[in-house]
Specification:
- The structure is a single chain.
- This protein is of the alpha+beta class and about 350 residues long.
- The protein is about 50% helix and about 20% strand.
- The protein contains eight helices and ten strands.
- The chain has a four-stranded antiparallel β-sheet with strand order 5-4-6-7, with helices on one face. A two-stranded antiparallel ribbon has the order 1-2. Strands 3-10 form a two-stranded antiparallel sheet.
- Helix 2 packs across helix 4, helix 2 (about 85-110) runs antiparallel to helix 6 (about 265-285) and helix 5 crosses helix 8 (about 320-350).
Length: about 350
């Protein structure tokens, strides 16, 4: 069931992405030659107006084929003939739809959550030292740690663990005012049972109104965007490598583990929907990276060629950008293949 859910999830994510391109293209007056649900041989196909609508055999994704999206079309309503801002909106629409889908799924997951831990200090354990004079106080709301905003309570330990060292820059809200604690010493001590190292801080658990639950879903969405950025930073700094990356196979395995560990079927469904929201937002952010073959790379290419054409008053040959995106696609597919085989190896090794 987890595998079927994952296949359906990935298909819906890609379909929603392509639907974003489709709607934006139609609204911009760009000719759409075909909009397909799924891939492979056509099971059903019908032409309505200028667009061929298809349902295909392989239940994976779909596509929106626009006239002249790779250049070289004489059609006045082709993608490459549209105004640059229309092309920009069409390119960004896919990621926008994925992000909106992620937010919607987060709302579905967190609306039933009537109580939640919030980043407000309720009190301290006897062994704590962070509440020394001039330090943290009960009632403080943690706003930032080392320049990173605290969207949800779990961010507190996450950011502290990502930044080595015992001193951190904190920003808290205290009695309606913002208080900064630069280079604040955060000492860990053995817990009362002597098993774990803790800061000795307890956070409040609050009942949430419907609006607060929606705010929680929004904060979780923003937090997911930040997690993508932090992950990319770790890759660039060498703090993470290929072994830490995972693809669809690894994601399905993680979903299966989480679903099996869920107390009830409803919990399992909500946990998998959270995975769906997480992946949707990840897909939205990753797709906007300035990498050839991705929408982000095409947007950068669009902005550069638009600027060049504005200065030189000469049309840039689209084939050069096409070569770049083609090479980028080959490299991305190669990386995806390596990650997939790594995930399969790890799976069988277990």
């Amino acid at each position: 069931m987890t595998i079927l859910f994952a296949v359906l999830l990935f298909s819906v994510l890609i379909l929603v992405h392509e639907l974003g391109h489709f709607v934006a293209a139609k609204l911009s007056g760009v000719q759409v030659n075909e909009f397909s649900i799924f891939m492979g041989p056509a099971l059903w196909s019908r032409k309505i107006g200028e667009t061929q609508y298809s349902l295909r055999l392989i239940p994976m994704g779909g596509y929106c084929a626009m006239e002249g999206e790779d250049g070289g079309s004489d059609n006045p309503r082709s993608f490459d003939k549209a105004a640059w801002w229309k092309r920009f909106l069409i390119l960004i629409a896919g990621a926008a739809m994925n992000f909106l889908m992620g937010i919607a799924l987060m709302a579905v997951v967190f609306l039933p959550v009537k109580r939640a831990v919030v980043p407000v200090i309720a009190g301290f354990e006897p062994f704590a030292t962070v509440n020394r004079e001039g330090g943290l106080q009960a009632g403080d709301r943690i706003l930032e740690v080392d320049g990173e905003k605290i969207y949800v309570q779990s961010d507190f330990n996450l950011i502290l663990n990502l930044n080595p060292g015992d001193t951190h820059d904190l920003k808290v809200e205290r009695n309606g005012e913002t208080v900064e604690l630069p280079n604040f010493l955060m000492e860990k001590h053995l817990s009362s049972d002597g098993k774990t190292m803790l800061y000795g801080m307890n956070f409040e658990v609050r009942d949430l109104t419907v609006l607060q639950r929606l705010q929680n879903a929004w904060n979780q969405s923003l937090d997911t965007v930040r997690l993508v950025r932090l992950s990319l930073q770790m890759l660039l700094r060498g703090q993470a490598g290929l072994s830490d990356m995972t693809g669809p196979v690894g994601i399905v395995q993680q979903m299966s583990v989480v679903a099996d560990a869920s107390a009830t079927k409803v919990d399992a469904l909500l946990n998998m929907l959270y995975f769906g929201a997480f992946i949707a937002i990840n897909l939205a952010v990753m797709n906007l990276l300035p990498i050839p073959a991705l929408d982000g790379g095409r947007i950068v290419g669009l902005l550069i060629t638009t600027a060049v054409e504005a200065v030189t008053h000469k049309k840039v040959n689209p084939k050069y950008e096409g070569y770049l995106h083609g090479a980028g696609m080959v490299l991305l597919l190669g990386l995806m293949g390596i990650i997939m085989f790594k995930d399969i190896f790890v799976l069988f090794k277990r």
